[in-house]
TrEMBL record:
<keyword id="KW-0433">Leucine-rich repeat</keyword>
<dbReference type="Pfam" id="PF13855">
    <property type="entry name" value="LRR_8"/>
</dbReference>
<keyword id="KW-0677">Repeat</keyword>
<dbReference type="InterPro" id="IPR001611">
    <property type="entry name" value="Leu-rich_rpt"/>
</dbReference>
<dbReference type="InterPro" id="IPR003591">
    <property type="entry name" value="Leu-rich_rpt_typical-subtyp"/>
</dbReference>
<dbReference type="InterPro" id="IPR032675">
    <property type="entry name" value="LRR_dom_sf"/>
</dbReference>
<protein>
    <recommendedName>
        <fullName>LRRCT domain-containing protein</fullName>
    </recommendedName>
</protein>
């Protein structure tokens, strides 16, 4: 037995009992714990006061007499037998964390009297059922987290909860009734379940919903009216599902800022799918099965800042497809099957800074392909089928600082190919078949040339026009 005395406890603010099996506190000493702000992982026992019980792995609260002062209970796995923290007054507790305790159920009435409870975290347990009215009377409860449990169904009554986390459970369907009695939810996380179906009115009671996470499930379709009753959603996460087509489901979401749809099987997008998303800033459609895009699909997205289309099967870019994206700063088209870039295809992207076109099948560039990209400073054309760069082919890229042309043939580069690139700082020509560097001679700002895998790779010095470049330890040639 460890005996703790009152000496020097009068200024106690934090009391840590980590890695102690059992500590007995006499009644007189216990009143000092009024000053406690937290009780850390331990096995703390005092039979004169109430405590959580984990008997048979079912969570309940055993009421005895109580005391005041503790506002937070933290009890995580500490290698000890799963015995409860204790010595706290229910009416003053604002946060309860009971993580990784092998709990399988919650007893009805467990939280009766916890009127000040604001945060409840029961992550990483084995809970498969939650009594529907177990949170009755908890009018201050705002955050509930049941991540990494074994819930197959979920339905509770709580008019106060704002943030609900149910990721990594075994939920298969979001029914029309599931959230009918939790109308104040603003953040809902259902990531990593096995959801296959969303019933049409699944979120109909969640008019205040701001953030909805449905990623890493098995969702194949979105009902047309699924978001009609929650128009305040700002962030929507649907990545890593099995969606094949996008229709009009998003049209009610006029305040949406981020929409993540990557890593699905999307092959078809309705021309009006995104038309009402006037506040949208980020749209991620990467790693899908898109082959064609309707010319009007991105119309009216004048606040869009990031458009991610990499790793699809896109073969062609329709005229004016990017015409309304006046605030777009980042466009990723790498990893597609684009064969050509027509003149003025990027016209209107006056704020674009970063353009990725690598790993496509582009055979040639024409003058005017990059017209309108006055602010673009990073262009990547790695691993295409470019064999020749004609004079003035990069016209329009007056702010370009980095140009990546790795793994192209480039057997012929006209002397005026890089005209207008006065701010170009680095050019990368690695693994290209370039035969001469004459086209670089008049580029006054060029500081770095990357030539690994070319006929120049063994040269320690390169004379380009009147300038001398010397190789460094990274096998790039730097202006001397």
């Amino acid at each position: 037995m460890i005996l703790l005395s009152l000496d020097n406890f009068h200024m106690l603010k934090t009391f840590s009992l980590t890695n102690n099996n059992k500590i007995n506190l006499n009644t007189a000493m216990f009143w000092i714990l009024v000053l406690l702000l937290g009780v850390l992982p331990s096995t703390l026992q005092h039979e004169e006061y109430g405590k959580f019980s984990y008997a048979n792995n079912i969570l309940s609260f055993q009421e005895v007499s109580t005391t005041d002062g503790v506002s937070e209970i933290v009890h995580e796995e500490d290698g000890l037998d799963p015995k409860p923290p204790s010595i706290f007054e229910r009416t003053s507790i604002s946060k309860v964390f009971l993580l990784n305790r092998n709990l399988t159920a919650i007893q009805e009435g467990t939280f009766n009297g916890f009127g000040s409870l604001k945060v409840l975290n029961l992550d990483e347990n084995l809970i498969s059922h939650i009594p529907e009215r177990v949170f009755d009377g908890l009018d201050s409860l705002m955050v509930i987290s049941f991540k990494r449990n074994q819930l197959e169904q979920f339905k509770i009554v709580s008019s106060s909860v704002r943030s609900l986390h149910l990721s990594k459970n075994l939920l298969k369907k979001v029914t029309n009734e599931m959230f009918a009695n939790t109308p104040s939810i603003e953040i809902l996380n259902l990531h990593g379940n096995i959801l296959e179906e969303l019933e049409p009115l699944a979120f109909s009671s969640l008019g205040d919903l701001k953030s909805l996470t449905l990623s890493n499930n098995r969702i194949k379709t979105l009902p047309d009216d699924i978001f009609v009753h929650c128009p305040e959603i700002v962030n929507l996460y649907l990545e890593d599902n099995q969606l094949k087509a996008l229709g009009g489901s998003f049209q009610p979401l006029k305040h949406l800022i981020t929409l993540f749809l990557q890593n699905n099987k999307i092959a078809e997008v309705d021309s009006r799918a995104f038309h009402n998303l006037k506040d949208l800033n980020t749209l991620d459609l990467s790693n899908n099965s898109l082959v064609t895009l309707h010319e009007a699909v991105f119309k009216h997205l004048d606040q869009l800042g990031e458009l991610l289309l990499q790793n699809n099967q896109i073969e062609d870019l329709p005229d004016a497809i990017f015409g309304d994206l006046s605030k777009l700063s980042r466009l990723l088209l790498n990893g597609n099957k684009i064969t050509s870039l027509q003149a003025d295809i990027f016209q209107g992207l006056r704020e674009l800074r970063n353009l990725k076109l690598g790993n496509n099948q582009i055979r040639s560039l024409v003058k005017g392909s990059f017209t309108g990209l006055d602010r673009c400073y990073d262009l990547d054309l790695t691993k295409n089928n470019l064999s020749r760069l004609k004079t003035d082919v990069f016209t329009g890229l007056k702010s370009l600082e980095q140009l990546i042309l790795n793994e192209n043939e480039l057997s012929e580069v006209d002397v005026g190919a890089f005209n207008g690139l006065d701010l170009l700082y680095i050019i990368s020509l690695e693994n290209a078949k370039i035969q001469t560097l004459d086209a670089l001679a008049e580029m006054g700002g060029l500081q770095i040339i990357a030539l690994r895998g070319t006929k120049f790779q063994n040269d320690t010095e390169l004379r380009v026009g009147s300038k001398l470049y010397k190789v460094n330890t990274y096998q790039t040639w730097v202006l001397a």
